[in-house]
Amino acid sequence: MEIIATCSYTKARVGKVSLPHQVVDTPVFMPVGTQGTLKGVTPQQLREIGIQIMLSNTYHLGNEPGEEVMNEAGGLHKFMGWDRALLTDSGGFQMVSLIKLTTLTEKGVDFIHPKNGSRMLLTPEKSMAIQNSIGADIMMQLDDVVSSTVTDKKRVEEATHRSIRWLDRCISAHSRPAEQYLFPIIQGGLHEDLRHECLEAMTKRHTKGFAVGGLSGGESKDDFWKTVTISTDGLPANKPRYLMGVGYAADLVVCTALGCDMFDCVFPTRTARFGSALVPTGQLTIKSKEFAKDFNPIQADCPCHTCKTYTRAYVHMLFRMQHPSACHMLTIHNVTYQFTLMKSMRESIIADRFPDFIRKTLGRFYPTIGDYPSWIVDALHSVNVSVG
Amino acid sequence: MEDGKTQQMLLTFKKYEKDLKIAGPVCMLFTKTGCIPHLTQETLSYLNEHLLNTTTFYEIPAPTITDFQETLQVHDGDCAELFCLSHSCLTCLLVQDPTKKAPKGYNTNKSVSIWTNGGRVNLTPTSYMSIVEALRPDIFESLSDGDVVETDSKKRVLKSVDRSLKFVEECIEICKNSKKLGNSKMICAIQGGHILKERKRFCKELSVLTKGSELVWGYTLDAPKDISDATKEIINCIREELDAGKPILVPGVGHPLSLIDYMKEGVFFFDSSYVAGLVEKKLALTYKMFSVDECVIDGESVNEGALKKFEETIDLSDKSYKTAFISIVDDCSCYTCKNHTCGYIHHLINVNEMLAPVLLTIHNLHHHLSFFKLLRSCIEKKVPFDTIKATLLHVNGKEEMV
User: Fold this and answer.
1) Residues of A with Cβ-Cβ distance to B322 under 8 angstroms
2) What is the CA radius of gyration of chain A?
3) Collapsing DSSP states into helix, strand and coil, what is residue B160?
4) Which of the residues A25, A89, A143, A251 is marked catalytic?
5) At a CB cut-off of 8 Å and minimum separation 6, what does B301 contact?
6) How do strand A23-26 and strand A109-112 relate by DSSP bridges?
7) How far, in Å, CA of B385 to CA of B262, rounded?
8) CA separation for the pair B2, B23 (Å, rounded)
9) Three-state SS at B13
10) CB spacing of B42 vs A309 below 8 angstroms
11) What is the per-residue pLDDT for B303?
């Protein structure tokens, strides 16, 4: 990773991460294409927007089309026709979201597929094998993910230690270290001591980057930002820091200020399919009747194809018709919105005017001083930016 | 005999004082609410420019726009603007959705029923024409009672003819008095069911109704997907009793062999709803095309065997495509074939991903419109239709023809 610029107020930095398929500008938001596709959108459209890296999900791809087919296809890049960077998660997050259907041991995680009842034992070795066949530029270790809302510290401690052991198993099993970069995932729940323990252990392993995990799972925002900043403090400066599961604009701005470089979240693309457009002032529920007579574009200054071509009223009509193209139109807009946000962020950091950018951007979400959530005020205060 | 029918394969339309000329055969793009299912204008633009006429027709079924009264009331402009379509396109409003079979038995002497997302809507000529006025399409279908099948009684058929003629008359009257429909043209749905005599009666009386009127631009016929002798007689009847130079639209016809059959009868205005139907069934068009120069096969030698063996599609949901990492059609230049494989599309279909119908639509439209382009060049070079058909079968044959 090459650091292009650092903010002289906050912990933000702009970088270039050289990956086998693509050099990626950070901070970056990675849209999520779970099953080897960003729902309804072609790779060409993503390229047009400027997307350099996207995410896909090991658990889903491991089921369909499966490891064998992925191998025959020559990897996910070839399979889905995407020649830029890819990142795969380990399949571990499903542990938290499908907890009723899993059995956890030191060996690995036993999954039962919710739809067809099929069994899969996901071990660190198996996760590496599937991710190796997928061939993403960045792969994630299999970690013992514990929800941040779990209060039993013993369980969190167990999970932290296991994650470290599983990291080593992942590093051993990883068969393509030159072509794929394995990232450890810093765990430790909301416990500062466990976080430090994990940071110390994991940073000893020589990897090209790190992820901060175990957050965005329902914990309080106060705990959230404090844990993020503890984590970034303990990570080396010259390697990318990937904060998993973060995608709301305000969160992206604050966490960049706290020193994170990479983000992913299903929110922008999911909310698009449900008829919600992301705009600088928040969200527009295009499906709602108030837009039936609005012949403006979704966002006046947005460069995306949807805003240049269609009116709110038209997208509204298509949503009410359940026309699939409506989802595609909003997905293109929301992905562009996120991309433009990150691009502007990078530009302001390079110009060393990030605090102004923060105030201007957040100011549109929180027009009245009193609107600012206290966690944002506190988090930004910790990095020398005053808002609210 | 053929020359007389093919002579007029030219559509002309006057828009903004310009005389637009579109060489037939023409494939109108089927839409729902002005948007091709699964595509946006961005993905539509992947289609090579030469496949879309300089003037593109967009087909809008009334059931996909009727629900939006509050938008229609406020919008001041034509429907091309409402649907965010470019200025260089022509819009055509149809009463029914050609991809859906309307439930039987709901039309009355005063109204025709259509089914929108909100449910059944009764359209009288007045209420229908108010929708037409709000939309101002370039072309609109006349309101008519087409709810007739072969098993219906003669009485029912007679009723549909009488009602439809009355509806046409009322639509024309409303149009005359409308200040907003000065530039819109009408296509008349030809009724009469399976009784040729009734078809004749309809056409004769329609001719009287529309004599001297510049409003009627063409006709539309609810024709079967595969042409029959009865259909040929009806088409002849339209030609004899009405204006032989005006185009006849046959929504839903799209099978390559059917297209040739209909063109042989002088019909050259079609829509792409056939493609939409294929995409719903996860089918991809694969029949081979040919160049005009390859058309040397003797037209007389079309054999039944080759007809039966003709396969126009493959089913990408079939498991046999799981590891087929080849394009749908080997030398196809469409976005889907240049960038994606059958194996990938099969996966997308298998896991219900929205990109599957997007990629299928792009390929199928490309293939379908390429065939239209091929047909246009064959017709230009005056290749007989039987020869075109024989060549198509030969090129797609599995056995060598002597």
Assistant:
1) 65, 69
2) 21
3) helix
4) A89
5) B390, B401
6) unpaired
7) 10
8) 17
9) strand
10) yes
11) 72
Q: What is the pLDDT of residues B334-377, one digit of tens each?
A: 999 999 999 999 999 999 999 999 999 999 999 999 999 999 99
| Interchain contact, B37 vs A324, CB within 8 Å | yes
Helix residue ranges, H only, chain A = 43-49, 58-61, 67-73, 76-80, 93-97, 124-134, 153-173, 192-203, 221-233, 249-257, 267-273, 305-309, 312-320, 324-350, 354-365, 374-381
Burial label for A367, CB within 10 Å (0-12, 13-18, 19+), is exposed
Contact B71 A332 (CB under 8 A): no
Residue B77, classed as helix, strand or coil, is coil
Size of chain B in residues: 402
Q: At B334, is the secondary structure helix, strand, or coil?
A: coil
- Spatial distance between the Cα atoms of A103 and A99, rounded to a whole number of angstroms: 8
Residue carrying structure tokens 């054999």: B303
Residues of A in contact with B42 (CB under 8 A): 45, 48, 305, 309, 332
Element (H, E) at B170: helix B154-177
Contacts of A44 in chain B (CB under 8 A): 46, 335, 339
Distance CA A331, CA B7 (A): 47
Contact flag B84-A310 (C-beta cutoff 8 Å): yes
* Token pair 């040929």: residue: B232
Q: Is A89 a catalytic residue?
A: yes
- Check if the beta carbon of residue A279 is closer than 8 Å to that of residue A337: yes
**Least Cα separation, residue B316 to chain A (angstroms):** 14
Cα(B293)–Cα(B290) distance, rounded to whole angstroms? 8
**Could you give the count of Cα atoms lying within 13 Å of A244 in the half-sphere of its Cβ?**
26
Q: In this complex, do A72 and B325 lie within 8 Å of one another by their Cβ atoms?
A: yes
Instruction: Please tell me the distance in Å from B220's CA to the nearest CA on chain A.
Output: 26
Q: How far apart are CA B334 and CA A61, in angstroms?
A: 27
Residues paired with A5 in a beta bridge: A14
Distance CA B395, CA A184 (A): 57
Residue A279 pairs with which residues in a beta bridge?
Answer: A282
Q: Looking at residue B296, what is its pLDDT?
A: 74
In this structure, is the dihedral angle defined by the CA atoms of residues A233, A237, A239 and A244, taken in order, positive or negative?
Answer: positive
Q: Is the ipTM, as predicted for this complex, more than 0.85?
A: yes
Q: How far is CA B242 from CA A31, A127, A181, B121, B219, in A?
A: 58, 71, 73, 31, 10
Residues 6+ apart with CB under 8 A from B165: B202, B205, B206, B209
d(CA B134, CA B178): 11
Q: No. of H helices and E strands in chain B? A: 15, 14
Write out the two tokens for B30: 């089927």
Exposure of B237 by Cβ count < 10 A (0-12 exposed, 13-18 middle, 19+ buried)? buried
State the smallest CA–CA distance between residue A312 and chain B in angstroms. 11
Tens of pLDDT along A22-73? 999 999 999 999 999 999 999 999 999 999 999 999 988 988 999 999 999 9
Instruction: Please give, rounded to a whole number of angstroms, the shortest distance from the CA of B367 to a CA of chain A.
Output: 19
pLDDT in tens, B21-66: 888 899 999 999 999 999 999 999 999 877 876 789 999 999 999 9
CB contact under 8 A, A36 and B41: no
Whether the CB of A309 is below 8 Å from some CB of chain B: the reply is yes
- Non-local (6+) Cβ contacts of B173 within 8 A are none
H or E segment and range at residue B240: helix B229-241
Are B322 and B343 in contact, with CB atoms under 8 Å apart? yes
- DSSP state, residue A38: B
Task: Output phi, psi for A183, to 5 deg.
Answer: -105, 130
H/E stretch holding A102? strand A102-104
Q: What is the pTM of this model?
A: 0.95
Low-confidence residues in chain A, pLDDT < 50: none
Please count the residue pairs, one from chain A and one from chain B, whose beta carbons lie less than 8 angstroms apart: 127
